[in-house]
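Ligand-bound model needed. S-adenosylmethionine.
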Amino acid sequence: MNYRHAFHAGNFADVFKHAVLVRILLHLREKPAAFRVIDTHAGAGLYDLTGPEAERTGEWRQGIGRVRATPLAPAAASLLAPYLEVVAAFNPGGALARYPGSPLLVLRLMRSQDRLTACELEPSANAALKRALAADLRAKSVAIDGWVGLNAFLPPKERRGLVLIDPPFEQPDEFSRLAHAIVKAQRKWPTGIYMLWYPIKDRRAVTHFGRALAESGIPKILRAELSIGGGADDLGAAGLVLVNPPWRLAEEMETLLGPLARVLARGPGGGYGLDWLRGEN
Ligand SMILES: C[S@@+](CC[C@H](N)C(=O)[O-])C[C@H]1O[C@@H](n2cnc3c(N)ncnc32)[C@H](O)[C@@H]1O
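Prediction:
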């Protein structure tokens, strides 16, 4: 395990993923019944944007840095506002110095009855995560393999909620592992919402992954991809797969993703795609 999210925290892919994550949490909050979030690859929780890792890549400047500084069209801005408010809450001085990862974004939007289970296997990231969760009784961080956790923690007793699967994609077989894992998980907990993140580097692998999901028997799957264009070698596009997305999420993403992609674009070829792999069409 070499991956360290501190190098990438707050980059365009985090903004894309976390903006959608926050929209899902807001939908979950619409009903009073408790929900559970299971974050299978949770990361360290809180990232120092002034630290050596973030400074070395400067990726956050082209991600959350830009999005905070650039006004969006009103409809998109109001959909993005709750995410930006959580980021602002971690930066009380106003200047952007810290970035909350998925478990902290979730915790901020949870109510007293909701629960978070966050898996993180890498020891130093797990220790940091424990500190970041600050002994909040609604959250539990576990030093467990997220793929094992996925099987162990489903179905949760709350019976409603979200599973976020955000692996580091260090292994060559990560796409097929992800496809198998989501099929198994969805069988164990068919009504849960699932959000899967993937990098778009190898288009053939991504196409194959989409086809495998479309043929998996899972009835409702929405796919969103966002590209920042440009010709650089590093990551320039990422995707999200959403199983059982909340009602109205697709419509919200249609409003949000175009303006977001324009702000995040680093060159020609930027944009977004949104389509149903199964259902809704
Ligand atoms: C992309 S980062 C997670 C970012 C986080 N979900 C967020 O949005 O802020 C992936 C994380 O998975 C951890 N990891 C790698 N292999 C793992 C495994 N088998 N089980 C759980 N965590 C793992 C890495 O240490 C890393 O912190």
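The pocket of S-adenosylmethionine is lined by residues 1, 3, 5, 17, 41-43, 101-102, 119-122, 125, 145-147, 166, 168 (CB under 6 Å).
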